Queue: 4 jobs
Job 1
Amino acid sequence: MCRSVSTMVMVLLWPCMVFAAHPLITDDAGTQGKGKFQLEVNGQYDSDTETVNSVSVKTTGGQATMALTYGIIDSIDLAVGIPYQWIEEKDDGVLVSNEHGISDATLDIKWRFFEKDGLSFAVKPGASFPTGDEDKGLGTGKTGYHVFLIGTKEAAPWAFHANLDYIRNESKFDENKNLWHASLATTCEIVKNLKLVGNVGIERNPDKAADRDPAFLIAGIIYSFSENLDVDFGVKAGITRAETDYSILAGLTYRL
């Protein structure tokens, strides 16, 4: 698997691992509440072009993810995500790879351990499982694990979120094993049921030969049709050359 596709795999897997309020990648410290469910159906399209040894390499792809979250108790959630992924690569306009299928599934537990005066903190450990075909670039081929430290501050109509994350990249590829992620996000309800959202972050590049880490910027909206139903749309842009050039994000969230 070439370097551009390897980086794209990590980019596509990341949103599924986090289960943030789509289209954000940064998670919030909120939980569902005892006995409550949340179903998320999210999709994204990615496009990246770079020059490798004088060859123009264009990688496009996407992911459709279904994630289900259940509130075990008021402060603890259990979440599982199953992504379907596709990746296409063209070198100087010639198709060299076109793969699609189930990618690596994830399981996470979020514990909100502090909440007072609009400030809350949570920790979320989890694991990824090699359900994707690593030979096709659809997964890592090994079970990995991760842990997220999450902070949220709410001051209506604003909310602010911060994540510091560690990811153990157990992979059959020759990649960096110890990855990190740091990001900030904000939401603002500008009118009833409509929020503007923004997100910025950076993470360690899994590519050992890379001289830059991928950094991103997201802008989007979340509209609530009701208390239990949200739809969202966003655009993700790469700040550094190591990040995917751009992504189009859309999703639906239903709570019951």
Note: The longest strand covers residues 55-73.
Job 2
Amino acid sequence: MSKSKNKNNNSLYELIKTLFYAGTIAIIFRSILFEPFNIPSGSMIPSLLVGDYLFVSKYSYGYSRYSFPFGIIPIKDRLIYDNPERGDIIVFRKPGDEKVDYIKRLIGLPGDTVQLVDGRLYVNDQLVIRKKTNRGQITKTDGSKVNLVEYEESILNAKSYKIIESSDNDFFDNTIKFIVPEDKFFFMGDNRDNSKDSRASEVGFVPKMNLIGKAQIIFFSHNGSARFYEFWKWHNLIRFSRIGKKIE
């Protein structure tokens, strides 16, 4: 065998080995430490915007089989489990369709009761305090305008966060009293009138096995005003003020 052929074989072997090691490290990093996630919809406005890219800490609530690619590790429940807190923004697998990731805010813990009455949130029969902080208007794709009110909300004296409401009499603004079962959680979007969450039967209560991780920090954000090859528009595309922002 010629020297050049041996050299080519060695180069190919080194390339394959390098790719294998790089892929293994990336899988371990995404499974154990942090996984990137992008925001595809407006259900978490104003906390998260469409076009935000963020890191989710996989270790925050321990690990389940959904923490790993294709569920290859057959964990029955969770390992190194740590209880999430009300108000956390969490990525989870949609119950019944575990290929789909959702991101919402945790409202109800196991044993809690959750209800909305005329747009006001009650947790354990206590009215959640909200304070109006802003108001504005958006134009929908059909040209119609929607008035929005921003509030600062705090669940049972936990950490505060911002929500938006278009009204207090939309479809999910009056609900039954939900009783959160053991080992399950109740989630809602911060964009209260434009979020498919635990109030909807197709989502419902989320088992603790489905929790993926806690949203921590925005590492990139864009407004979708330009395509990736239109580099001359990037200065208007990137939301520099959101990069590095800690998620509350």
Note: The domain at 3-242 is CATH 2.10.109.10 (Umud Fragment, subunit A).
Job 3
Amino acid sequence: MINRTHRLSLTQQAKALGLSRGSVYYRPKPISQEDQRLMNRIDQLHLEYPFAGARMLRALLRQEGNLVGRKHVRTLMTRMRLEALYRKPRTTQRHPCHQVYPYLLRDLTVTHANQVWAMDITYIPLANGFVYLVAVVDWATRRVLAWRLSITMDVHFCLEAIEEAVVQYGIPDIVNTDQGSQFTSHRFTEWLQAQGIRLSMDGRGAWRDNIFVERLWRTVKYEEVYLHAYESVSAARTGLARYVQFYNSRRPHSSLGGQTPDQVYFQQLPQLHAA
């Protein structure tokens, strides 16, 4: 992957690999093969039972012969950025400098492209490790507008993804995210505000808010990630690029009347299609 003695700069190497610039300087802490195996299984169980918290996941793992404690399951879930999807009291203490924005989609009818974009981050298992995937998705047409991989959970790769989407497709009315620190960070929120984009945030743990992007992650993982068992970051990047192209241009969606995201998105934005 990254070669610090290569003639290409670290920034150029990161861009070629589809990684954020900040992750180049990250020194990952080693993770045991057993924890890696558990994380991969927890990821699969979370997609199957998104309402399951650490206690239920521990029970499910123990049914399969995995003797693991609830606290360790919770630690691994935190590392993977997984949370049970159901509405909970808002008792979490937030960073005093990070504002959480209101949810703007409750009574909003989303009817056209670039009205609302959604962003989220998910865990992608590798043969010997893992990476994080962030995607920008057009809510009305299901089209994946941009995505990035990163080995760290910093804000850089989220910013790079939304910047690419805006450059290529224009400015949406609203961007909806969860309350993750990447999306509440000053760098992210101030950039959106500078573009005149309204920021909407899901209620913490609210399944209704997350279900749209959760369905995307389920599709990506079952139709691509789990089938190919990526050996490296570069293999993941290649495989995901191939799949996103298929997802946008070839995969029919029942919610779109059997059309593809590309067909619906560019029908609504003919000026982009012509460009």
Note: Confidence is low (pLDDT under 50) at residues 88-94.
Job 4
Amino acid sequence: MLNALGYAGRVKSPTYTLVEPYQAAGLDLRHFDLYRLHDEEEWEAAGFRDEFDGRNVFFIEWPEKAHGLIPQADIEIAFEILEQGRNAEIHANTGTGKQCLEAI
């Protein structure tokens, strides 16, 4: 996704840092991997709430680990590994999400 937006650098997994920031296509992007998130105190101590300031675009893996801490996703993408290939289902949850899907 980042490469499709024009990001030419190395894309790192945020498995241990929980978040990696990027800039591409004039957007401030944040890639969260919340698999290792343990509780709300850890979320607050890391200052992640400040990232949700209305200016950033988020890609969030394991969003259920931050249930109640993050706003509803505009768009959700669910991946399924098939015997041959993969399947991706894309759902718009908000008006903004619907506008984005219509634009692509």
Note: The beta strands are 19-24, 27-33, 56-61, 75-81, 86-92.
